[in-house]
Amino acid sequence: MSIFEIKMPKLGESITEGTIMRWAVKVGDTIQEDDVIFEVNTQKVSAEIPSPVAGTVTELLFKEGDVVAIGTVVAKVNMGGSDAVVENVKTEQPKEKTNTVLSIPREEQKPAAPSKNKDKNSRWYSPLVLSIAQDAKIPQAELDAIAGTGYLGRVSKKDIENYIAQKSTGAAPAQKSENKSANAPEHKAPAVAFNAEDEVKEMDYVRRIIADHMVMSKKVSPHVTSVVEVDVTNLVRWRERNKDEFYHREGVKLTYMPAIVEATAKALAEFPRVNASVDGYNMILKKHINIGVAVSLNDGNLIVPVVHNADTLNMNGLGKAIDSLAVKARANKLSSDDIQGGTFTITNFGTFKNIFGTPIINQPQVAIL
Question: From CA 268, how far away is CA 75, in angstroms rounded?
Answer without folding.
Answer: 46
